[in-house]
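Re: the 203-residue chain
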Amino acid sequence: LPELTRTYLPINITNAPEYYRVSSEFRTWLQGEGREASTSNKLTKITALRCVLGRGKVEAAIELAQDILAGGEQVVLYAVHKEVVTSIVYALQEHGVVTVVGEDSQEQRADNVSKFQSGIAKVAVISQAGGEGINLYSASHIIFVEREWNSAKEEQAEARLHRIGQKQNVTAYYLVARGTYDERLNQMVEHKRKISGEVFKHD
């Protein structure tokens, strides 16, 4: 296969006041009544914080995608939350955008992949639902707007481009928001990736 390069891009979020307010409220809650809260309640709070952070990264993702599109190339963007996906689709609609996300039916998904692979659509926005079983190798650039806790999920998304049929080197861009939990998450995920790589190397 051609080479796969991971590039980590520090960015500033556009909604910093909102993010820090929600983050502060979450820490206060966690130190108080959140101590006795169920795991599901804690995850709900974290999900809300992640969504705010994702929204704050959209502008940087759009700018990077437009730079790639200006070079005449297609691009794939990976996002987790529906609100973030919707914002990206709206901002890049003039380029022809398709989605491969959980809300899409199997028929829609197949049709959208076909449009992207044929070049009718220049942008594909995918989520975890697009992490397996689809081919997007007409593109050689993927932007991870939002991160996953599990490095394997991100690697599955990379593999939609970096697979048999790909003729170009693939670049995976990971947007890391400065001064947010994103930096810690990035360190954690990359540590998991390193450990996983060592295990497979010695297996």
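Residues 54 and 146 are 6 Å apart (CA to CA).
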